[in-house]
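Sequence in, structure out. Go.
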Amino acid sequence: MIEALIGAAVGVLTIASARFIRGERWLYSLGLLTLPSLYASFALQAGEQAVGVREMIYGVPFIVAGLVFTLVSVRHSAVVVGVFWLLHGLYDLAHSQLFTNPGVPAWYPIFCFVVDAVIGVYLLWLSRRIPDANLRRA
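Output:
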């Protein structure tokens, strides 16, 4: 339960930080790049290089989406980037069924799921709330 509460706080702080630095156009897309590397780094810390490579292979769609949508306006990318954040949250929940990664802390999948869900839902909300003209200036 505590990992979910901390995950929600981290998600909200991430959104607040992005708004504060006016980084909403690019921050969430670049954030997608980091998601696969976290699981890979857990594997590498546990001495499981092969698992780390598999984690990065499974992470290729997130990396590609992060790179592509960093260059696209928020209005057009917020829905897709939001969906990718939500998909990563589902990946967090299914992770233990896909991998045996001994480096992943027991609390991490729930924490990461909640962070991903908060950011993903926010991006979907943002895509419907702010008109095109305001986002082009972002």
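Check: Confidence is low (pLDDT under 50) at residues 133-138. Helices lie at 2-20, 27-45, 49-58, 60-70, 74-98, 108-129, 132-136.
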